[in-house]
Amino acid sequence: MDNLLTIEHLSKSFMLHQLDKRIPAAIDVNLHLKEGEFVGITGKSGSGKSTILRCIYRTYLPNSGMIKFQSGTFGAVDLAAASERTIIELRKREIGYVSQFLSAMPRTTARELVRHAIEEMGNDADYAEEQTVAMLEHFELDRGLWDSYPATFSGGEKLRLNIARAMVKRPRLLLLDEPTASLDHSSKLKVKLLIEQLMKEGTTMLGIFHDLEFMQGLCNREYQMKDGQMGIG
Hints:
Blueprint: E1 3-16, E2 21-34, E3 38-42, H1 49-57, E4 64-71, E5 75-78, H2 84-93, E6 95-98, H3 110-119, H4 125-138, H5 155-167, E7 173-177, H6 185-201, E8 204-208, H7 212-215, E9 221-226, E10 229-232
Parallel strand pairs: 3-8, 3-9, 6-7, 7-8
Antiparallel strand pairs: 1-2, 1-4, 4-5, 9-10
């Protein structure tokens, strides 16, 4: 089975100008994901886990290294060097990202956020609405909130909406950054069900979890981060 994602010698640091000091966040990181795999990354807070995901999604631009993604649209792409236009297209159609924080467009309802994600994939309005309803019902988001603005939601409601918006696209690669951080047990189980469903459909996933119990039975492999360096778990 071919690799969908290959990271070689990835490094990322941040400059603290007020201290005139450079802080390393990821140091010579190497990992790979085969198509259909679920790979987990564990480690303490501040070890560099989220930095890896943000470099893949290109929220952060790496200082050095290669992030080779086997795109269905563009073929092999180095995400560390690709143009902004290419990255935007990949985010729309092939790479999803779930964080524990919801970043939503202002004055956009929960229903519109999920529906827009589906329409970005080129689906028609009827299909988009049908899938939106199914996803919001799956996560048991109160129907009274569907046409409300997420700014008024609780932390758990925002997180469920964030997960719904990313998963409804069924991307080729799904990045999960502590997606169950503020969810109750019932909501965690619903996330797990969707992850299992996406795995059966062939979605490749790279996930960060503090909840190690949640990862049991899901991950094909596990990497551990410590002080910006990665090892096999």
